[in-house]
Design goal:
heterotrimer; A mainly alpha (about 45); B alpha/beta (about 400); C alpha/beta (about 210); A: about 45 residues; C: Rossmann fold; 5 strands; about 60% helix
């Protein structure tokens, strides 16, 4: 059984984003997630 | 001089040098990455996962070596973030080595899919591929831990830019950073991230149309808007030493025909936009660019600064007298020479390349490993160039 | 009738479609041997065009792929049949602490195209492994590759280990950080930035 409840896109991804970055909205939240993904994908 | 004034005077010094104005001394931009960790008495595995140690290595470096700019303040490799996400890691450590296992993100056939939605692609393709079965285990707890590290990392960046700027008066090199959107040409993205050297080399031969299609779309979506912004902007930004920094690495695998097809038209459009606005751009290169000198020879002085790696700086000046050179110091000399030899060569660089501007001293290769330079050599060079008056 | 001249020319032109088309018509051990020679001749042309500046690194990578594919096609015919006399065995690796393999792989395909049997010890290869293999296989030529400046230390350690083991090997070092100065410090016999020089040096040593 997968523990990763955020696997789907965009639903799971957005759900995770709201949980991780609750204090920002809109573009800033997305920017922060984007940079995190860049780090995790060695970009 | 107070740090703030020092910072401003250094911005001016870099800008004047880049603009071929006579300066009273040659600026020194330290292309130093992880060498400073060893120099501070640590090993890489001790430093790369500990922000306190990283900060100490930067501070010790700046206290010891009087430089005008520093390539990396310990933020280049975000090890703690990736480690928090996946302790099995895709980095490998020994006391002297940290590295990254390379992954190409796309194949030639998935490039358009990537462009359709890069985030979706990262989510559905890159990350699952990278972490394999472990991707299924990444629950909220792991993400929270990773995000906390990511926040620590961003605070460290802010903290260090405060220290380097407010305490040591080091300037910011250029406004490009990941948050504000660095400008990367499509071909460079293919080379460094999406396809990698092997696949790109083969694809330029086997599927050139697909490469071209990708680059055209990438540029339409990313470079054209950036160019519009440059054209409609106010021109030079004197808060920074350079108005922009871009990477030039992918030319290292290309023959001239390929360069003309996949690289130059796109780069030219960008460089022309900067030139028209009187802005200056720093091009960080690896390998040799002299093979392609002819393409850059008509830009006015003050537009281009090349951070060169393997090209001989004197040959470079001869081939491109209109381009400011950043570089000149070799690891061969810094690692194997004597302090006297290092100073003599540095003096020659300053005298021959910089007396009328157009030269910024730097290390061609990033100083990364313990034996990339002898401490006494590096110290001698830094002391010399900071006090040498032209 | 297979046109081996056309095959050599196509390989030199990096014309994959023609190379594949001609190789498809190979149907005997004898034809496979000649096709192999033609491909090797084509690789010589690739090397020359690289030296003259018409081709660059990406073309060598692509040529390496074409050559690997060609060997794959010809292998069933060539297996068991000795062609071109005994080959000189040599060691090639990327040295310890360095994981770069593209340069090494280019050099391997060029060396193989020039008749060497290359024992590719891979990347991040410790000095001991080079010494053990050289002893076990009676190797006289060792080529060490690296991209990081750190590789220079590992090259030196490898050369020292070879000398300490009393092996009479010629060593050539290659890759971005090497230079005449580095070669002297490391104690290697020769250095190269281009695969062509590596091949020419190894050929001279093999004679």
């Amino acid at each position: 059984m997968s523990k990763n409840e955020f696997k789907s896109y965009p639903e799971g991804y957005r759900k995770l984003m709201k949980k991780l970055v609750p204090w920002y909205f809109g573009p800033m939240r997305e920017k922060m997630m984007r940079l995190l993904l860049t780090i995790l994908t060695d970009g | 001089m107070k740090p703030k004034q020092l910072q401003q005077s250094r911005v001016q010094l870099f800008r004047d040098a880049a603009n071929f104005k006579k300066t009273d001394r040659i600026p020194h931009f330290a292309n130093v990455v992880t060498w400073k960790v060893f120099d501070a008495g640590y090993t890489l595995d001790q430093a790369m996962t500990n922000f306190d140690v990283l900060e100490e290595t930067v501070v010790k470096f700046l206290d010891t070596y009087p430089v005008d700019g520093l390539m990396d303040v310990g933020i280049r490799n975000q090890f703690t973030v990736t480690e928090a996400f996946d302790p099995e890691g895709y980095y490998y450590y020994t006391p002297d080595v940290v590295g990254i296992h390379d992954h190409a993100h796309c194949t030639v056939d998935t490039l358009q899919q990537y462009l359709d939605d890069p985030i979706r692609y990262a989510w559905e393709v890159i990350l699952p591929k990278k972490f394999g079965d472990r991707w299924d285990e990444k629950g909220l707890d792991v993400w929270k831990k990773t995000f906390a590290e990511y926040m620590r990392y961003t605070s460290y960046i802010l903290h260090m830019s405060g220290i380097t700027g407010k305490k040591y008066g080091l300037p910011s090199l250029s406004p490009n950073n990941p948050m504000s959107g660095a400008i990367v040409l499509g071909i460079e993205e293919l080379f460094s991230n999406l396809l990698g050297i092997q696949q790109l080399s083969v694809a330029m031969r086997r599927s050139p149309d697909k490469i071209e299609e990708f680059i055209n779309r990438w540029d339409a979506e990313r470079i054209t808007p950036a160019i519009e912004k440059i054209k409609n902007g106010k021109g030079p930004n004197y808060k920074y030493c350079f108005d922009s920094s871009i990477l030039m690495l992918a030319h290292n695998v290309m023959n001239k025909k390929q360069f003309e097809r996949f690289y130059w038209p796109h780069m030219k459009e960008l460089l022309d936009a900067y030139a028209e606005k009187g802005m200056n751009i720093r091009i960080f290169t690896e390998g040799s660019v002299l093979r392609f000198a002819e393409y850059f020879k008509d830009y006015p002085k003050g537009t281009l600064t090349f951070h060169i790696e393997q090209d001989d700086p004197f040959a470079f000046r001869e081939a491109l007298p209109n381009v400011c050179i950043m570089g000149g110091l070799t690891t061969d000399l810094l690692a194997n020479g004597t302090p006297e030899e290092c100073v003599a060569y540095t003096k020659r660089l300053c005298d021959e390349l910089g007396k009328d501007g157009g030269f910024i001293l730097s290390e061609g290769k990033m100083l990364s490993y313990r034996n990339d330079a002898k401490r006494e050599n590096y110290k001698a060079v830094c002391d010399f160039v900071s006090s040498y008056r032209l | 009738m297979i046109d081996f001249e056309a095959l050599a020319a196509a390989m030199g032109d990096l014309d994959e479609d023609t190379v594949k088309e001609i190789l498809e018509s190979v149907d005997s051990v004898e034809a496979a041997g000649k096709a192999m020679e033609a491909c090797q001749k084509g690789m010589d042309t690739v090397g020359k065009l690289f030296e003259e500046g018409d081709y660059f690194v990406g073309d060598l990578i692509y040529a390496g792929e074409l050559m690997t594919d060609a060997v794959e096609v010809l292998k069933p015919y060539l297996a068991g049949a000795e062609s071109g006399g005994p080959k000189t065995k040599m060691i090639l690796c990327t040295v310890k602490d360095d994981l770069h393999d593209i340069g090494k792989n280019i050099v391997r395909s060029m060396l193989e195209a020039n008749g060497f049997e290359v024992l590719d010890l891979g990347i991040d290869c410790p000095a001991e492994k080079v010494v053990e293999t050289a002893k076990a296989e009676g190797i006289k030529i060792v080529a060490l590759s690296g991209v990081l400046t750190l590789a220079l230390d590992s090259m030196k350690a490898t050369v020292d280990a070879i000398k300490a083991a009393g092996l009479e090997c010629k060593v050539i070092i290659g890759g971005a950080p090497v230079s005449a100065e580095a070669c002297k410090n490391i104690g290697a016999d020769e250095w190269a930035h281009s695969p062509q020089k590596t091949v020419a040096t190894c050929k001279a040593w093999a004679e």
